[in-house]
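Morning F.,

Quick status update on the modeling queue. The single chain you submitted on Monday has been processed. Sequence for confirmation:
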Amino acid sequence: MAAWLQLRGVARRFGAIAALKGIDLALAADEMLVVLGPTGAGKTTLLRTIAGLETPDAGCIEMAGEDVTHQPPAARDVAFVFQNFALYPDWSVRRNLEFPLLAPGRNMPRNEIEQRVGWAAGLLRIEGHLDRPAAQLSGGEMQRVAIGRAIVRRPQLFLLDEPLTNLDAKLREALRVELALLRRDLGIPMIYVTHDQTEALSMGDRVAVLDAGRILQEGAPEEIYRRPASPLVARQLGQPAINILEVERVGDEWVGTTGVGLLAAVAGDGKKTLGIRPEDVAPDGGQVPGVVRVVEDAGAVWILLVDWAGTTIRIMTPKRRGFAPGEEIYPRVNPQRAVFWPREEENR
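Structure tokens below.
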């Protein structure tokens, strides 16, 4: 992958707080990278540093082979879409869209401004709202205008800071799809930060998992979901959350904390931390009994909370039959889907 954007060892501190700790990151010229992390991970600081709104204390930032580490924001030609829309509420949609094109020094002809506003409004299906005040729009329409104001500039790079967080679930789902399609139509690189795992898995060409100012893992969404580098990464992806168990190799089996065998051991030895997704545990066919505590109806599937082998696990299973609290079942782990980490990874 030829990198259009390259970060090398980027660090940023705010007093005693290290917001970014030596970030190495690359973005191709036609790629959407989703940065996933919890609140306080450093996601917004990362975007602000790329945009030039923060100056790194160490490291460098390159765009198209040029070092922009100390360039002002205006010189970087980056569009930033915020979580809170950041529109002028009393202005019309048209005036909000025109605003970045009227910046001093642009000197853009009026007919080109109108052409770009019409183009952006058509892409985002807001052409019928151009003469309405922004304050009269719904939340989804406001976010479309905010995105339109970014794309109308046709920048070199899009930075999106949790732009769908303030919208309801159905609207978030619709705009996720539209954003992914829009990015492909425009062919402009995009970094999208979120704490929402569904957005990360469904939108990104690649995902970078950020926590406490460090990149823990990056790769294709399926790779990170199936082969997380640590329990910390594993817990950030998947709903319901991944099951984490402490196991030890005894003979040809991995045994749990109660000393019972949970699955066959084909490789590895010693004490490990085992990760297994709820959809990779069948409710039947195992040797160790468990007791169903909670049955959750999740539409097409049941989600079972089960006391099993000295711990509590979640099982996601198709609705081929019913389950009841208190029922005894025999969970079976799919060994091909099991992920093992050294025990010390749990404490890092």
